[in-house]
Design goal:
Layout (H helix, E strand, L loop, with lengths): L1 E4 L11 H30 L3 H10 L3 H17 L1 H25 L4 H29 L5 H29 L2 H20 L16 H13 L2 H24 L10 H25 E3 L2 H7 L2 H11 L4 H29 L5 H30 L1 H19 L3 H4 L26
Antiparallel strand pairs: 1-2
Helix pairs in contact: 1-2, 1-5, 1-6, 1-7, 2-5, 3-4, 3-5, 3-8, 3-14, 4-5, 4-7, 5-14, 6-10, 6-13, 8-14, 9-12, 9-14, 9-15, 10-13, 11-13, 12-13, 12-15, 14-15
Pfam families: MFS_1
Protein name: MFS transporter
Keywords: Cell membrane, Membrane, Transmembrane, Transmembrane helix
Amino acid sequence: MTKGLAARLPLDLLRERNLRRLFAAQAASVLGSSMMPIALSFAVLEHGGGASGVGLVLGAQTAPLIIFLLAGGVLADRWGRRITMIGSDLVRAAIEITVVVILLTVGMPLGGFVAFAAILSVAAAFFHPAFHGFVPEVVPEDRLQEANALGSTLNSIGSLLGPAVCGALVVWTDPAWVIAIDAGTFLASALFLAGVRTSSAKNAVPEGESFTEQLRHGWREFSSRTWLWSLLAYTSLACTFVLGPVMVLGIAFVGGKENGAAQWGTVMAAQGVGSLLGGLVGMRVRFRRPLLASVFCTFGLGAFAALLALRAPVYVLVVGSLLSGAGFALLHILWTSSLQADVPSDAMSRVSAYDGVASVLSMTVGYWWAAPAAAEFGAAPLLWFGAVWTVASAAVMVTLPQIRRSAPRADKDANSGGVAPEPRETSTAH
């Protein structure tokens, strides 16, 4: 399936000033954001929220994403993606600075933490669709996969370093100062983004077109591509039926009461390492059929579920977790590159917002249903169901001609790494 290895890692992308600033903004934002769940949890505990309060606050970050991601996608296409991202960063920084002052002076009740988490999530819902739409404005089309792989690698590194740095900081300082550091990373991100210049500074949005009309146009762009909605449904169901149960039930299958948490932490750390490896593969390997390759990227997760059901030893579970992390990282790279190659630029943020909504919703449902289903049918049978589902659903996906097609735009560039667009009219409406 591969066309071969690239001659080098794509670090030469960073020689271009716009790309260097874009990836610096991403690195700063990811590092800070990966510290927030831990810092926020300890802040809630220190102010008397308890474990149930922690769950309530972290849960408050999910619902706004489901509700506001689509609005964020529409407005990013309408206002301009760079401006939307800068605005999101500045709003989040201002909110966090305000909360830090409150925490260090008068303290905050649980309701305040819930409101803080929800408002922060609303602001984030405007950033993510804008970012996915902005990358193709800055990166040459024939290097989108490499750029997305580099971005995925930065995400993985930040996700590994952030919790470790946060854990060390919380030991000797107030969690409020970690939140202050996160605010600083948002300010840094906004500063880097302000220095990015593109040829399409403003999106071509027809005057007088309503929000609802633009939302409907985004849906038409999304639903008209069989490869897009079918692959999104496939990965979303994998999150619901496989990843959710693995994350909820996994710790019960690892170790005993005394060392189970530590061993599960080791297994989860391997998933982060796997994400790094998946990013490196995305940098180096060109897939002739990227969508078909995406289907098989979920097999690592299916194998991980099967290993848990077998109660495999920890060192074996580490391998399964590593494969799962690598597969999902590569899946994200191939998916994002295909999306950017096939969807019109003026609708990119709206279409990517549907992806975001499906991802958040599928994981939420997966976390919610796993424990009750395991209580009814047993944890091991549920994990086996996930493993079987992975293979069966992949068998259905590979029958779709749109999934088996070659890399896109082969007529324009034989080395291009996107997805050949299905027949469609040129996008003129929003």
